[in-house]
Amino acid sequence: MIDRTLVIVKPDGVYRSLTGKIISSLEDTGLKMIASKMVRPSAELSGRHYAEDEKWLNDVGNKAIASYKEKGVNVTETPREIGMRIRQFLIDYFTSGPVVAMVFEGNEAVFVTRKVLGPTEPRKADPSTIRGRYSSDSYDLADRNKRAVKNLVHMSEDREIAEKEIALWFSKEEIVSFSRSDEEIMYK
Ligand code: GDP
Ligand code: MG
C-alpha cells in the first residue's frame, strides 16, 4: 500500500552535513520526496510535534526503563515521568538549530523509512542503517549529559501519526504531486 511519512533531519544531522545521504538512502529504496523545507523550529512547533501523548510518553519511558534494567540500574521514576523528561530534552534538541523536514511517499513508506533509518539507539542500530552507520550515541551517554539521544533523524511511527505530523509541518500547497520516472518499473 502506498503511504506517506514525515522525516526530519535533526540539528546534529544538518550540522554534520548528512542531509544528502539521508535523502539518498530513502530515494534509493524507491521512496519519493514530495515536500521539503529547512526551518529553525520554534518551541511552540517542537512542543506540538512532541505532544503530551500518554501512549508515547509511556512507551518512551518504558523503553528507557528496559535499557536501565539491562544495565542493572534501579529506576524509581514512573515511565510517564521519564517520558516527560525526555520530551523536554527533545524540545531543547529541536530548537537548538536548523532541521530539514520532508515528506516521503511510496510503497510502505512508514515501514521502509524506519527500516532504512534504524532503531532509536544508534549504539544498537545495525551499521547498514543511517543511525547505526553515522552515530554510536546511547541512552546512557544522552541521559548523563541531560539531552536527547542524538540519532540524526525523526520519522513517523505509524500511518495515522504520519498524517498528523505531515499536517503539522506542511500546508497542502507545500506538498507536490508527481511521478518518479521509475514508478512504472517498480510498482506495476
Ligand atoms: P524514534 O521514533 O526511534 O525516534 O524514538 P522515540 O519516538 O521512542 O523517541 C523519540 C526520541 O527521543 C528519540 O529519537 C531520541 O532522540 C529520544 N529518546 C528516546 N528515548 C530516550 C532515552 O531513554 N533517553 C534520552 N536521553 N533520549 C531518548
Ligand atoms: Mg518516535
Protein described:
By secondary structure, the chain is α+β, with helices and mostly antiparallel strands. The protein has helices spanning 11-15, 19-27, 43-49, 54-70, 79-94, 109-117, 130-134, 139-144, 159-169, 183-187; strands spanning 2-9, 32-39, 99-107, 153-155. The mean pLDDT is 96. The chain binds guanosine-5'-diphosphate (GDP) and magnesium ion. Guanosine-5'-diphosphate (GDP) is lined by residues 60, 63-64, 86, 89-90, 120, 139, 142-143, 148-149, 151, 154, 157.
Q: Keyphrases for this structure?
A:
10 helices; Alpha-Beta Plaits; single chain; 188 residues; binds magnesium ion; 2 domains
Class by SSE composition? alpha+beta
Question: Under CATH, the topology of the largest domain is which?
Answer: Alpha-Beta Plaits
Gross CATH architecture of the largest domain: 2-Layer Sandwich
Write down the secondary-structure element order. Answer: EHHEHHHEHHHEHH
Structural domains: how many: 2
Assign an overall shape. Answer: globular
Provide the β-strand percentage band: 5-15%
Uncertain stretches: none
Q: What is bound: which ligands?
A: guanosine-5'-diphosphate, magnesium ion
The tally of strands reads: 4
Kindly state the mean pLDDT as a whole number? 96
Widest β-sheet, arrangement of strands: 2-3-1-4
Biggest sheet record = 4 strands, antiparallel
| Structural Rg | 17 Å
Number of helices: 10
What is the terminal separation in angstroms? 13 Å
Main CATH class of the largest domain: Alpha Beta
CATH superfamily of the largest domain: Nucleoside diphosphate kinase-like domain
